[in-house]
Amino acid sequence: MPGGKVVATKVSICIKQPQLAALVMLGVLAFAAAPAAAGLGGELSAVDADAVAMRGTMSSAAPAEATSSYAVRSLVSGEGTVVHEYGAPSGPVFGVAWQGRRPPDLSVLLGSYYSEYASAAAQQRHPNLHHEVIHGPNSVIVMGGRMGRVVGRAYVPGLAPAGVDAKAVVK
Amino acid sequence: MNSKFARSAFVMITGALTIVVAALTQYGTDSKAHAATEFAHIAVAPRGLRFGLAREVETRFIRIRNTGNFEANVTVVPPSAPFSVVAGGGSYALLPGQLMEVGVQFAPTEAGPVRDEMTIQCSNCVAAPDDNIVVRLAGNARGAVAFGSGSPTPTPAPGGSTANALPFEVTAGSFDNVDSPFASITICASGTSRCTTVNDVLIDTGSFGLRIFGSQLSRLGITPNVLGNQKVGECAFFGSGSTWGAISTVDVKMAGEPTITIPIQVMDDTNSFAAAPRACTQGTQLMSSPDVAGLNGLLGVGQVASDAIFTDYYTCTTSSCTALNSPPKADIVPNPVAVLSTDNNGVVVSLPAISSGGERATEGTLFFGIGTRSDNQPGSVKTYAANDNPNSLDYLNVDTTYKGVTAGGFFDSGSNGLFFNDSAIAECSDGSGFYCPSGTLSKSATNQGASGSVSGAVSFSIANADALFNTNDAAFDNLGGTFDGGNSYDGFDWGLPFFFGRNVYVGLAGASSPLGNGPYTAF
Known about the structure:
The structure holds two protein chains of two kinds.
Chain A: H1 2-11, H2 17-33, H3 47-53, E1 57-59, E2 71-76, E3 82-87, E4 93-100, H4 106-109, H5 114-122, E5 131-135, E6 140-146, E7 149-155, H6 166-169
Antiparallel strand pairs in A: 1-2, 2-3, 3-4, 4-7, 5-6, 6-7
Chain B: H1 2-34, E1 42-45, E2 48-54, E3 58-66, E4 72-77, E5 83-87, E6 90-94, E7 99-106, E8 114-122, E9 132-141, E10 165-170, E11 181-189, E12 195-204, E13 208-213, E14 226-227, E15 230-238, E16 241-253, E17 260-267, H2 278-281, H3 290-293, E18 297-301, E19 312-316, E20 321-324, H4 336-339, E21 346-351, E22 362-368, E23 383-385, E24 398-402, E25 405-411, E26 418-419, E27 441-448, E28 455-462, H5 465-470, E29 480-481, E30 492-494, H6 496-499, E31 502-507, E32 520-522
Parallel strand pairs in B: 2-9, 12-18, 13-17, 25-30, 26-29
Antiparallel strand pairs in B: 1-3, 3-7, 4-6, 4-8, 5-7, 8-9, 10-11, 10-22, 11-12, 11-16, 13-18, 14-15, 15-16, 15-19, 16-17, 19-20, 21-22, 21-31, 23-32, 24-25, 24-27, 26-30, 27-28, 31-32
């Protein structure tokens, strides 16, 4: 258990062991209680959990045509940002799109692809204040807009159902 | 009685105009029906401009009209100094019936007569004489002349010769940027003579308020504003990330305007403030330093008087922050323009036309105020009212129609390209999202005011971005890219390329001006 040892050492700087144990227990409980979130790569049926994570609500306003190949589910984040998630009926979410006053929490919305976004974004400059394209190894994230209105989309071409062009349908 | 008379006269004029338009439409339909083929043809007048003996810098106009029934691809080949093209230059498509006025400026720098010529080219016109139409230019002077004081429209005046004229430069700056308008702003610790001039401050009509990286202000000894025993912080959201830092009230000097004392955001790049709350970054990258953001500061001079409804305020200890839902007015970052004593109803962004091949550096002027002084009087412009409902997602947008689809559009000097989705235009292979067509494309989009009454087409070009970047120039009027990476058109960001060759009037929400009440954009 070398991994656990490292964590314990780090945290024990400011927290005593019994408290640490309690924290770990809490963490396990919280993890067990919270439904798995969707986001990129997650299940479309779990989008409700994304709404919870963003302190928002599910929206019934259908944003785009669903086809037999994929469905769209929408939520409005606590800050009023409108989010659409695209996924096959029995497949992963292959695209997300948003518009609002501010970006949604990308660490939730990009799901398991957040880390590749974060490392790619950290390695590039952002010389255009109002527009940015980030390419992860598997994902594409585009965002832009001005103060008060930002838009963006992210998709994983490899997760899209056969015959579906993620770039074309995610909006 | 006078007003009543004026109103009925207006109705008559409107009626007459309607008839003329109807007649033109009828004519257009007929000619199309009878025309065997599509053809482009341009009429250029006059074929010569005589400036005479100039006493001040003068601008005169050549009119190019497409008299054919198909769009004409026009290129204006500019003359050499002391003549220059200040409006309507470059390459663009003229739609059938469309008129372009090309402004030619004569700015002699020495005594004596000068002659030159410029060429209007049409690459696809039906008649060979249209390929190269020469316009002769002549002028004389007793010596170098300056810009006149009574010019009817704003004239770029590098050097800030008048109190409300802030010169800026579209140049690579310290950050190797393209299409970024950079100005210098002087900041002082409030009420003291401890001042510094910050260079590479981006002029941004797409945001509101002044933001400067803390490293640029380190010698001033300024401190965050406080509420109780806590410091006030702010997070602002931009298209590509967020800015985070303390609110600090400082003295600001812009051009020759009287000093204003206002709260600004001191973007934290020196770790001298609490870390950004999670709700600020939202998992995006923080604009954490001048190098990352490509600027030392941001001068937000868009259509709203403060950033209050768009940003989040916090009170912070040295290590953690709590949301501040109703920040005191004294801590809310204002649009500096709204705070000026007289020139406070908007700005004019003025940039000369540039060569379609790009330029290393181009001088422009940001005029404070609209119709408040002789140098910011609106000439003949169309005023596009912006959406004025702060609760709408379309707030501050106009309607922009491209290829028959209408979506929200906005005019943003802080965007370094014309951004709109068109899957028919090839994107560059480096994945930057810029467009890289094999040849320069002529395009057109139509803007309509939110109130619906005013509309007008804008012709623009999209060149190969890789080829533009390879020139090492920094000012381009034909740089474009995707809006949000999708295939279908869903919005138009008229970035800096749009501003070349124009005076763009940005009217503040709720403020009155000769062009009406804001929010609006006029050009």
